[in-house]
Design goal:
- By secondary structure, the protein is mainly beta.
- It folds into 5 domains: 49 residues, Complement Module, domain 1, CATH 2.10.70; 49 residues, Complement Module, domain 1 (Ribbon); 45 residues, no CATH class; 79 residues, Immunoglobulin-like (Sandwich); 160 residues, no CATH class.
- The strands form 14 sheets. The chain has a 5-stranded mixed sheet with strand order 29-38-37-31-33.
- Helix content is 2%, strand content 43%.
- It is built from 2 helices and 40 strands.
Length: 482
């Protein structure tokens, strides 16, 4: 009540409902009348109640079922619909009315679905929430993976689909001398059949999106040894046939092992590397004579080794280092130095004494070995010493006519007053073969003689003659007293 606490005639009292209540009667003022009474009014306060909330289509209300002042009702779009206004609640006001709300819930629509290559869609043509589309690969294609179902989601978007459709290419390609080792509908793996090996190229065939095979490019070649037809040429070169890719280079390791049955201490062991792109590689070696060799050639990439055995023949002996002398002494001492290569095949040295009496003949290639006892009466050519190589280390000194025996030959004293030529012959024996090389070592003078050599002209020093005679020829020398 609102009044001034006066109760005399004409006084007024105003009535106001408490908060949460409203006047449901008539009038809200009472007056003090002349008869000393307040006039009667129908003022009546009732609790404010907003009643049932506003109904909004395609929504559901979330509230505690009270509709008094301050009560709040929340609206939520039902499944398949979504809020387009953004405001989703109303409140019971002091006026007993729910506040105005313009909520609208529209149906979820995912719209037209995606079209995928090489796939058809199976669905009911509905685009609302929960609608499902199944993608199926077209005829001639198959599903190679991925998800084939797409569903319309509450966000209004179709779910992601990842189906992969690949073409069916039909029969797999046939490659010469190959077989299929693995296959599925889109890929084939080939390998060469037994007896053949792959020669470059790709070993898989792939089915493309157009239904055509991208055929493998592998080539199958007959397996052949990477090294074949190994031959030994001119006693120094090796040649073979190489089975490899035309343009590729191959690395070879050449191992040489040589031995001599007649010389146990001898050994010749070497290794060489060769890189070649040739189909017929060749390597030439500095080989030693009268030697049994084993050659092993390995193709390093293929790890294949081919072996060949061969032997080198006997060659003319190597010339020793000698000093030609012209002496007038009954016991001339002569000197030689063996060729620096101690692996030379010389068997022994022979020293000939050639008296210059009348007409004499000396044949370096003759196998006759006349000794002093045989030639003593005729005073002809004889061997005065034979020295085996085992008795010669690096150099040798020999005194001609010292009266000793050398290799079974008597080194007879030279006769005073006579002229001699001392001839050195190097002899090599091996496997039934024999090679000789002769050198004029010295002239022992007693009287004056001239030497004439058939088919040989010694211009300059006698050492040039000796060197020329060691080139593999046999000469017949004629000596005549003048």
């Amino acid at each position: 009540m609102f009044w001034d606490q006066r109760t005399n005639m004409g006084s007024e009292v105003f009535y106001q409902c408490n908060f949460g209540y409203k006047n449901v009667g008539e009038g809200n003022v009472s007056h003090c009348m002349a008869d000393g009474a307040w006039d009667q009014i129908t003022f009546l306060c009732e609790e404010i109640d907003c009643g049932e909330p506003l109904f909004i289509p395609n929504t559901k209300m979330i509230w505690n079922r009270t509709s008094l002042i301050g009560s709040v009702v929340y609206y939520q779009c039902v499944e398949g619909y979504y809020n387009t206004s953004g405001i989703n609640y109303t409140e019971c006001g002091e006026n007993g009315l729910w506040t105005d709300i313009k909520l609208q819930c529209e149906e979820v629509n995912c719209g037209p679905p995606l079209t995928l290559p090489h796939a058809n869609m199976q669905w009911t043509n509905r685009t609302g929430l929960g609608s499902v589309i199944e993608y199926i690969c077209k005829q001639g294609f198959y599903q190679a993976g991925g998800n084939s179902l797409s569903t319309c989601t509450p966000s209004g978007q179709w779910g992601i689909v990842s189906i992969i459709c690949k073409a069916k290419c039909g029969p797999v390609p046939a490659l010469a001398n190959s077989e299929v080792v693995w296959q599925n509908v889109s890929a084939v793996m080939h390998r060469c059949v037994e007896g053949f090996h792959s020669w470059r190229g790709r070993n898989t065939s792939l089915c493309d999106i157009h239904g055509k095979w991208q055929s493998a490019t592998i080539r199958c070649r007959e397996i052949k040894p990477p090294i074949s037809d190994l031959v030994f040429l001119n006693e120094k070169c090796l040649r073979w046939k190489a089975d490899k890719y035309e343009a590729d280079a191959e690395n070879y390791q050449v191992e040489i092992v040589g031995f001599r049955a007649y010389q146990r201490s001898f050994h010749d062991k070497r290794k060489k590397l060769l890189r070649s792109i040739s189909d017929h590689p060749e390597i030439c070696l500095n080989l030693l004579p009268v030697t049994n060799y084993t050659f092993s050639i390995t193709a390093l990439s293929a790890r294949f080794t081919s072996t060949l055995t061969a032997k080198t023949s006997l060659r003319e002996p190597q010339a020793p280092e000698i000093v030609y002398s012209e002496v007038e002494a009954p016991l001339p001492t002569l000197w030689l130095r063996r060729f620096p290569n101690t692996l030379d095949p010389i068997s022994f040295y022979q020293v000939f004494v050639c008296p210059l009496d009348g007409f004499l003949l000396f044949d370096c290639s003759s196998t006759r070995n006349p000794d002093f006892s045989i030639q003593r009466k005729s005073h002809g050519l004889y061997i005065t010493a034979q020295v085996h190589l085992i008795d010669v280390w690096k150099k040798m000194n020999l005194t001609v006519g010292d009266g000793r025996y050398y290799g079974g030959f008597y080194n007879a004293p030279l006769q005073n007053g006579r002229d001699y030529y001392i001839i050195l012959r190097a002899v090599s024996h091996w496997g039934g073969a024999s090679k000789h090389c002769c050198f004029i070592w010295a002239k022992v003078s007693g009287t004056s003689y001239l030497m004439k050599v058939s088919s040989l002209y010694a211009a300059g020093s006698i050492g040039v003659v000796a060197l020329a005679m060691c080139l593999g020829y046999c000469y017949t020398w004629f000596f005549k007293k003048t």
